[in-house]
Design goal:
Elements lengths: L2 E7 L6 H15 L3 E7 L6 H11 L3 E6 L5 H11 L4 E4 L11 H9 L4 E6 L7 H17 L8 E8 H8 L8 H8 L3 E6 L13 H15 L2 H31 L6 H33 L7 E5 L2
Parallel strand pairs: 1-2, 1-4, 2-3, 5-7
Antiparallel strand pairs: 3-8, 4-6, 5-6
Helix pairs in contact: 1-4, 6-7
Bound molecules: uridine-5'-diphosphate and magnesium ion.
The site of magnesium ion has 5 residues, from loops.
Length: 307
């Protein structure tokens, strides 16, 4: 059986030599029949040139080079579409997903699992804030989404051919891959690993990007935030009815010296806020619907090498 390893790369020239020395033995330990697919996600450094020299000497190293930077999710999608293996593994280029995990994933694959995902044993490599925010995200996501994602699982995994086909069958542009992987279902199992810190180079993420990534993931997997406001509105209306009754009673029984400025102000400010939030939530979904109906391709390929 053939193994494909997909590695998305965006300006990773400094870490690639280390990656190759660790990846090759790991892959060979699995099977001699393999391919390593580098998805060049619009790198502006020497990444592509370096990959090309490798691909020239080794036909099992393949390159899909995208026309610009489309983001990791798009790069992974391009990789899944180009991979030909019976089992398809996904690995970060920066050695945070240690290549040595591949033989373990491959073993589970041969035992008949379709979706074998790496689970971080500890997140000590991450900052305190990142750990807290990631933990909260997983909790909220799994409460709301139709298909929960395993706690502390990343993109690092091995998929069987049929799981790959399932993920590729999903036409959406907003590609939150972790969510799509778990949507596919099939026989899944986690393999614990220690996520190391980056081999070299630096991360392409910042908190603003991560926040938007989380938002994309949530809105792609659940419409609950949209529906929530209906219930909130109902609840508030009931309260308002009660309050109206009480106010009318007070007026009839006690007459009405003008008062209530504070309660009026509070109510106006509160509900203006609620309405703006509601509009914002609708806007989030609307913008995503807009992106979907445009039907743009998720990525565009500049060139393919050894494919
Ligand atoms: N990556 C990519 N396109 C991007 C950003 C990142 O292909 O726009 C790749 C990157 O080269 C690496 C992987 O995705 O192989 C993970 O990126 P990074 O290490 O920056 O993310 P982190 O591990 O900090 O979450
Ligand atoms: Mg990384």
């Amino acid at each position: 059986m053939k193994l494909s390893v997909i590695v998305p790369v965006f300006n990773e020239e400094s870490v690639l030599p280390q990656l190759r020395t660790r990846l090759e033995p790991a892959v060979q330990q699995c099977t001699p029949d393999y391919e390593v697919l580098f998805i060049n996600d619009g790198s502006t450094d020497g990444t592509l040139a370096l990959l090309k020299t490798w691909a020239e000497n080794d036909k099992r190293i393949k390159i899909v080079s995208l026309s610009r930077n489309f983001g990791k999710e798009a790069a992974l999608t391009a990789g899944l579409a180009a991979a030909t293996g019976d089992g398809v593994a996904v690995l970060d280029a920066d050695l945070q997903d240690p290549p040595e995990i591949l033989p373990q994933l491959w073993e589970k694959f041969q035992q008949g699992f379709d979706n074998i995902y790496g689970v971080r044993k500890d997140r000590t490599a991450d900052s305190f804030f990142k750990r807290i925010s990631a933990g909260t995200f997983y909790k909220v996501y799994n409460r709301l989404a139709d298909s929960p994602i395993p706690y502390n699982a990343g993109d690092c995994r091995l998929l069987s051919r049929r799981a790959v086909e399932a993920v590729l069958a999903l036409p959406e542009r907003e590609r939150f891959m972790k969510g799509l992987f778990s949507w596919a279902g099939f026989k899944s199992i986690g393999v614990p690993f220690v996520r190391e810190s980056r081999g070299a180079g630096h991360t392409k993420w910042n908190y603003w990007k991560l926040w938007n990534f989380a938002l994309n993931g949530l809105t792609a997997s659940t419409t609950l935030p949209l529906k929530l406001w209906t219930y909130f509105g109902l609840f508030v209306s009931c309260g308002a009815f009660g309050y109206a009754g009480w106010a009318a009673y007070k007026k009839i029984v006690f007459g009405n010296p003008v008062s209530g400025w504070t309660s009026l102000m509070v109510a106006i400010l509160f509900f203006s806020g609620v309405q703006l939030i509601t509009l914002g939530v609708i806007g989030e979904y609307l913008s995503r619907i807009f992106n979907e109906v445009k039907q743009r391709p998720t990525y565009w390929i500049d060139e393919k090498i050894n494919l």
